[in-house]
């Protein structure tokens, strides 16, 4: 088993990117410890604030965000950061080479029930000719990411990361405090009998998704001719991790629950990094109109329809939109 830095060097990842990754991971080790302290640390429950998206901030959202923000801005590698918990981008080092977008704590509703949560991050190169305080630097498509990953604070703390040379799994070894490579070049099975969707939104979906899920539910008596099982962790990191481990389809489709907000998940720090990880593992990451990583962003907090996972199942789902 290999430690993280030698594994990245073997993949010819540039040294300054390795240093940035190690900086990000230092923050995740601290968060992992804080999460494990639960009621013994001051991390449970909500603050009295809302983020720019109108969501109540949990104490741990704020703790995790502040840890990332401070460590990244002090590192010298980062020109600016953008976070789910920050209204706009925050400037770092003017000559910094990288931009980091992150969801410091994904699956916030799971914090207080001791269930799966994680941190998602995405790294782009910073344009050298733009000001560090200009949020437009972040308007780069997902296919330009140089690294993406998440850390899952589960029964074990796991890092799943790609730098464009496959998707690899690492486990945090608490005996010496480092991430150890445990699986190289993860491959998502192309076929599956497992789907993940929030069924409570069913009546708000478009007809195509209604029909697709209806056919999955019909099982071996319906047109698909096989039975499907359903899983919903309510944390995208957890659901995508399961898809990377054993296949599946994960979707948060367009819905009409709130006319002003037809999509739930955010492009820059949820959909794009997961899309990069999945594509590097042979899976698909789409909207009903095309590839997620080809979307040219217009806003750092923009939301997007998400249909991702096992290749043949994503294609089966998309065929209902044709
Ligand atoms: O960050 C948004 C998020 O928490 C995702 O991690 C998760 O997939 C989804 O929202 C859960 O939403 P719902 O409330 O519909 O279960
Ligand atoms: Mn999230």
What does this structure look like?
By secondary structure, the chain is of the alpha+beta class. It has two domains: 4-183, 2-Layer Sandwich (Fructose-1,6-Bisphosphatase, Chain A, domain 1); 194-319, D-Maltodextrin-Binding Protein, domain 2. Helix content is 29%, strand content 25%. It contains seven helices and 18 strands. The strands form four sheets. A nine-stranded mixed sheet has the order 1-11-10-9-8-7-6-4-5, sandwiched between helices. Helix 2 (15-37) packs antiparallel against helix 3 (59-75). It is globular, with a radius of gyration of 19 Å. Manganese (II) ion binds next to strand 6.
Short summary of the structure?
It is built from 7 helices and 18 strands.
């Amino acid at each position: 088993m290999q430690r993280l830095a030698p594994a990245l060097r073997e993949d010819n990842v540039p040294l300054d990117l390795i240093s940035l990754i190690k900086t990000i991971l230092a923050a995740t080790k601290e968060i992992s410890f804080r999460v494990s302290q639960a009621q013994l640390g001051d991390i449970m429950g909500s603050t009295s604030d809302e983020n720019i998206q109108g969501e109540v901030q949990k104490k741990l959202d704020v703790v995790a965000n502040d840890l990332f923000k401070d460590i990244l801005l002090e590192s010298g590698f980062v020109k600016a950061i953008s976070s789910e918990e920050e209204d706009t981008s925050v400037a770092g080092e003017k000559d910094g080479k990288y931009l980091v977008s992150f969801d410091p704590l994904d699956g916030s509703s799971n914090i207080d029930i001791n269930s799966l949560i994680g941190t998602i991050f995405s790294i782009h190169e910073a344009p050298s000719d733009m000001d560090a305080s200009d949020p437009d630097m972040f308007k780069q498509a997902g296919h330009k990411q140089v690294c993406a990953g998440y850390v899952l604070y589960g029964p074990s703390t796991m890092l799943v990361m790609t730098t464009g040379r496959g998707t690899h799994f690492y486990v945090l070894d608490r005996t010496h405090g480092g991430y150890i490579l445990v699986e190289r070049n993860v491959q998502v099975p192309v076929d599956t009998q497992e789907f993940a969707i929030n069924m409570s939104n069913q009546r708000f979906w478009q007809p195509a998704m209604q029909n697709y899920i209806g056919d999955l539910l019909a099982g071996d008596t319906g047109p698909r001719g096989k039975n499907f099982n359903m899983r919903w962790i309510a944390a995208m990191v957890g659901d995508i991790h399961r898809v990377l481990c054993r296949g599946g389809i994960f979707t948060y489709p367009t819905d009409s629950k709130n006319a002003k907000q037809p999509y739930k998940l955010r492009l820059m720090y949820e959909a794009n990094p997961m899309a990069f990880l999945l594509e590097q593992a042979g899976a698909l990451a789409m909207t009903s109109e095309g590839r997620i990583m080809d979307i040219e962003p217009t806003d750092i907090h923009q939301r997007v329809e998400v249909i991702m996972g096992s290749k043949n199942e994503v294609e089966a789902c998309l065929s209902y939109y044709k």
